[in-house]
Amino acid sequence: MVTKLDRLARSVAHMMTILEPLNTKGASLRILNMGIDTISPTGKLMLTILTDLAEFERYIMLEHHRDGITHANAERKYKGRKPTSQAIV
Question: Whole-angstrom Cα distance, residue 41 to residue 80?
């Protein structure tokens, strides 16, 4: 049982590695905020589709991020992350 899908797995492959041991033990996965339960075929379908969409959304976001950095570098506006002072122990 989980509350949010995006906190469980970042890709379809990762989700399947989580679900495989559950399925072999006869258990199901419930996602509370979406009302999805993998005990039914419909629940399994919805989980797969939503996980695939989340993975796609992440790839698009990362692509836009890289494009933005490339554009800022071309205009000499990108400075990167500010350095942090770390104490040496």
Answer: 47
> What is the distance between the alpha carbons of residues 60 and 75, in angstroms, rounded to a whole number?
23
Dihedral sign, Cα of residue 10, residue 11, residue 12, residue 15: negative
- Interacting residues of 55 by C-beta distance below 8 A, sequence separation 6+: 10, 11, 12
How many DSSP H helices and E strands does the chain contain? 2, 2
Kindly report, residue by residue over 1-44, the tens digit of the pLDDT. 888 887 788 788 888 898 899 889 999 999 888 888 989 999 98
DSSP state of 8: T
Tell me the whole-structure pTM to 2 decimals: 0.68
pLDDT digit string, tens, across residues 44-69: 899 989 889 988 998 999 999 999 98
Q: Round to whole Å and give the CA distance between 49 and 38.
A: 12
